[in-house]
Write a structure and sequence with these properties.
Length: 126
């Protein structure tokens, strides 16, 4: 019995070390509001590929311990723009990252609500 207790204590210590090495938990709602969490269509535009390719790359990245997004409800991927840009640079180099950043800025401008639109007026009154 004493060996079991010692083994359990050792294992708990190992788990504690592993937990401390994990990245901090993030708030995906805040990330979405801040513009870091994007859908697969936007991520595909930024990465200059298809949404299907983004989903495949997200699965591959998670499999090697470098996730670029989170899969919700077994149907929707939310991709971290910052992690996507890092992955693009790692895969294709700095110049492609800069191109992807330009596409991200362009997408943000294209999808931003116009100030004169009814949506913009409603958002301003809340």
């Amino acid at each position: 019995m004493p060996d079991d207790r010692d083994q359990l204590a050792t294992r708990i210590d190992q788990i504690a070390v592993e937990l401390r090495q994990l990245p901090p938990c993030t708030d995906w709602v805040a990330a979405f509001v801040d513009g870091d969490a994007v859908g697969t269509d936007e991520a595909a535009f930024v990465a200059n590929c298809s949404a299907q390719t983004i989903r495949r790359r997200a699965i591959e990245a998670a499999a090697i311990g470098k996730p670029i997004g989170v899969w919700f409800a077994k149907s929707v991927w939310m991709i971290s723009l910052a992690r996507l840009l890092d992955a693009i640079e790692e895969r294709e180099g700095r110049s492609e990252r800069l191109s992807a950043m330009s596409r991200a800025e362009k997408y943000a401008k294209l999808s931003a609500p116009q100030q004169n639109s009814p949506l913009g007026e409603r958002a301003a009154t809340r």
